[in-house]
Amino acid sequence: MESILVIGAGFMGSGIAQVCAQAGYRVHLMDIDPVALEKAIASIKWSTEKLSTKGLLAESSTTILDRIAPEDTLEGAARAQWVVEAALEVEELKRDIFQELDRLAPADTPLASNTSSIPITRIAQATQHPERVLGLHFFGPVPLMGLVEVVKGEKTTGDVFNRGVYFVKSLGKTPVRVHRDIPCFVMNRIFAAAFREAVDLVDQGIVSPEDVDVGMKLGYGWNAGPFEIADNAGLDTYVLIGKAMKALGEEGFISKSEFIERMVAEGRLGRKVGKGFYRYTSEGKRVPWDRDD
Ligand SMILES: NC(=O)c1ccc[n+]([C@@H]2O[C@H](COP(=O)([O-])OP(=O)(O)OC[C@H]3O[C@@H](n4cnc5c(N)ncnc54)[C@H](O)[C@@H]3O)[C@@H](O)[C@H]2O)c1
Fold it and tell me: What share of the chain is helix, strand, coil (3-state, %, to 5)?
């Protein structure tokens, strides 16, 4: 059975570990925070049990969970056929992790980052073998979303890129191939154009977040509105993406207002803390702020 090392057991890493285990891979799930690891295992248990009761899994939740080993070091890289990094969106941190991975992982193991915004080429520069570094940009919640962008860095070989496409398909996901490495890749750039406009309109009091979401669903056929998507993703991650884009000289990418920074300072991080553009009941129901449950 092939082994995958997933680094970071937060919102994305736990979902990536889950879909790898569902696809039959053995998973080393690594995080420096033991609480994050505990929460990740609990959330994978909850999610696989829910999918199982809906008849959407071929195996039991226990069988899937048995394939996942929580770990607190990167040593699992030595036994991994694939590595997917999903730690915080901070370039220096990712570069340190990749430098270490390059030392530990077997020479033919591809090293993937799930970064939302940082060019793969910059992360790859921290390694001696940039040709085996690529982007695998999953969308959250990973167990439910079918898309993964496969991103070719400047030095990524065609073979590693093709193996990325094949790996994504082996997880039951659909790859979108990104042939040139640009900050935020393709889907996030397109989403960000809509989202930054939406944030500025809400900040100016022109429209409410819930009316934007209804409008985009009914008017443009989106499955979820931009504010629903942002609350699910976590607004703290948006702030980190904004900082990363600013550092790359891509100021035009982020919204003109500091609305999201203010929300994060107030602890409104989105669904994971029960409050963001919406508030969330203990059962996880999304409710506009000016309405009762
Ligand atoms: N949130 C989204 O919707 C989304 C979508 C696509 C990509 N991403 C990207 O995925 C990555 C993770 O995002 P997230 O939303 O899961 O964040 P998160 O904050 O939920 O999780 C990040 C995890 O990384 C861990 N971590 C920090 N330093 C570490 C280290 N040195 N080694 C190992 N683990 C470490 C933290 O303890 C935390 O558990 C980011 O690069 C983000 O940009 C996020």
Answer: 50, 15, 35
Catalytic pick from 3, 43, 116, 255? 116
pLDDT at 258: 87
45 and 170 assigned to the same domain: yes
- Residue 148 shares a structural domain with residue 226: no
149 annotated active-site: yes
Q: Is the same domain home to 276 and 230?
A: yes
Catalytic residue among 3, 188, 232, 255: 188
Is 137 annotated in the active site?
yes
Q: What is the pLDDT of residues 109-123, one digit of tens each?
A: 999 999 999 999 999
d(CA 263, CA 202): 13
Residue 198 belongs to domain spanning? 189-287
pLDDT at 29: 98
Are 31 and 122 contained in the same domain?
A: yes
Ligand 1 mean position, distance from CA 154 (Å): 24
Specify the pLDDT at position 256: 75
**52-68 confidence digits (pLDDT tens):** 999 999 999 999 999 99
Cα(26) to centroid(ligand 1), Å:
21
* CATH number of the domain encompassing residue 238: 1.10.1040.10
User: What separation in Å is there between the alpha carbon of 292 and the centre of ligand 1?
Assistant: 33
Number of domains composing the chain: 2
**Residue that has been written with the tokens 């996901």 in this structure:** 173
Same structural domain for residues 167 and 46? yes
Q: Which residues of the chain have pLDDT under 50?
A: none
- 43, 137, 210, 232: the catalytic one is 137
111-113 and 286-287 beta bridge pairing:
unpaired
Per-residue confidence (pLDDT) for residue 26, from 0 to 100 = 97
| pLDDT confidence of residue 134 | 98
Whether 134 and 196 map to the same domain: the answer is no
What's the sign of the alpha-carbon dihedral 280, 284, 286, 290? Answer: negative
In 3D, which of 27, 3, 2 has the Cα closest to residue 16? 27
